[in-house]
């Protein structure tokens, strides 16, 4: 299965448009550059949409869920049943992501990429289950390459459907007990960082258990080895939700959508997407810097600039939802803030 067939991501480079956007931003009634990252976001979104007057339409949040057999190695302190229980909670509007999506106007969908549970049909549930959880990658690859490609393709199909419906802003969150382990392994493999330096507590491991978790991940990487292609590494050390996120982000970039990247696990999906096609970065906004120690290493590796630093470590897409008002403000600044000429204010920059 060729999950990434016909995947062409357009560059956002447009010197004439960039100069015009910069002129419009600089002509607002403020000192040049004084709105800081808000100005950078406005420039990025204008280039993504190839316009001086961008708009944010029908924002969607995808919270993508899967289970992980690596939890058999006691890398998480909480039971795996929480994955499906929280998914049901989200579908009922609960949890952190439930109330934040309601508050900030996101249309929230839960995607079953590989939960070890049989859900009843629900209008906000997207069933893309490849199998009931990824395998224990201490013993064998988490996914076969075919399963990984299926998850990538699933992500692409989901996002393409929303793009066809007019959505141009999409946030990615996740739910999956134990998924900080594959995220950490992928960080180590893709960025070449020793796994011992980027392993964190996940759902709340004590320091001695974090050390043991790092040793499990180190043994797994040594046993399976680092592959030649990003897809093979994703199959060896990733998870079904992470692969689905990666495919979704790649498709979102292909569709010229704005991608809101959440925390540690969602960013590991971005790392996979970036390894497959670095052009995806032009479309990504890193919503926040997680309190999970490996997250900043991920963002630094791809040269990102997080919007918020609230010491979050919940996942689910919560950081993406919280950053959205800042994104909205950047677009409003570009479209609505008056210029020196309009305000009849003397422009000291001229």
Keywords:
Rossmann fold; 2 domains; Nict_dMeBzImd_PRibTrfase; 5,6-Dimethylbenzimidazole Phosphoribosyltransferase, Chain: A, domain 1; single chain
Annotate the secondary structure layout.
Blueprint: H1 15-26, H2 37-49, E1 60-66, H3 81-91, H4 95-104, E2 107-114, E3 125-127, H5 145-164, E4 169-175, H6 180-191, H7 207-224, H8 230-237, H9 240-254, E5 258-261, H10 264-276, E6 284-286, H11 293-302, H12 318-336, H13 340-343
Describe the structure.
- The model has no long low-confidence stretch (mean pLDDT 95).
- The protein has helices at residues 15-26, 37-49, 81-91, 95-104, 145-164, 180-191, 207-224, 230-237, 240-254, 264-276, 293-302, 318-336, 340-343, and strands at residues 60-66, 107-114, 125-127, 169-175, 258-261, 284-286.
- Helix 10 links the parallel strand 5 and strand 6 (284-286).
- 47% of the residues lie in helices and 9% in strands.
- It has a 6-stranded parallel beta sheet with strand order 3-2-1-4-5-6, with helices on both faces.
- The chain is globular.
- It is α/β, with parallel strands linked by helices and 350 residues long.
- Helix 4 runs parallel beside helix 12, helix 5 packs across helix 9 and helix 6 packs across helix 7.
- The protein has 2 domains: 15-54 and 333-343, Nicotinate-nucleotide-dimethylbenzimidazole phosphoribosyltransferase (CobT), small domain (5,6-Dimethylbenzimidazole Phosphoribosyltransferase, Chain: A, domain 1, Orthogonal Bundle), CATH 1.10.1610.10; 60-326, Rossmann fold, CATH 3.40.50.
């Amino acid at each position: 299965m060729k999950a990434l067939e016909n995947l062409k991501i357009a560059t956002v480079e447009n010197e004439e448009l960039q100069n015009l956007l910069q002129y419009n931003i600089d002509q607002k009634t403020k000192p040049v550059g004084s709105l800081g990252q808000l100005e950078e976001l406005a420039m990025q979104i204008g280039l993504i949409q190839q316009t001086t007057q961008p708009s944010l339409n029908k924002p969607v949040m995808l919270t993508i869920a899967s289970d992980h057999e690596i939890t058999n190695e006691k890398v998480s302190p909480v039971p795996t049943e929480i994955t499906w229980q929280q998914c049901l909670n989200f579908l009922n509007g609960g949890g952190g992501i439930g109330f934040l999506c309601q508050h900030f106007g996101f249309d929230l969908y839960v995607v079953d990429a590989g939960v070890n549970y049989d859900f009843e049909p629900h209008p906000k549930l997207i069933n893309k289950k490849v199998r009931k959880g990824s395998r224990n990658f201490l013993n064998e690859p988490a996914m076969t390459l075919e399963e990984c490609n299926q998850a990538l393709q699933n992500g692409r199909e989901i996002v393409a459907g929303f793009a066809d419906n007019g959505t141009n802003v999409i946030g990615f969150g996740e739910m999956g007990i134990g998924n900080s382990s594959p995220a950490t392994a992928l960080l180590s493999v893709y960025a070449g960082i020793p796994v011992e330096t980027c392993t964190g507590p996940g759902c709340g491991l004590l320091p001695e258990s974090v050390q043991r978790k790092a040793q499990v991940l180190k043994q797994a990487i040594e046993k399976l080895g680092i592959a030649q292609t990003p897809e093979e590494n994703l199959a060896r050390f990733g998870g079904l939700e992470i692969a689905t996120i990666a495919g979704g982000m790649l498709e979102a970039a292909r569709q010229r959508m704005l991608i809101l990247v959440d925390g540690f696990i969602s960013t590991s999906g971005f790392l996979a997407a970036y390894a497959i096609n670095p052009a995806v970065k032009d479309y990504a906004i890193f919503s926040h810097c997680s309190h999970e120690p490996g997250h900043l290493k991920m963002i630094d590796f791809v040269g990102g600039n997080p919007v918020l630093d609230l010491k979050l470590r919940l996942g689910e897409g919560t950081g993406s939802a919280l950053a959205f008002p800042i994104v909205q403000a950047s677009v409003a600044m570009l479209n609505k803030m008056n210029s020196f000429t309009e305000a009849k204010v003397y422009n000291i920059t001229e």
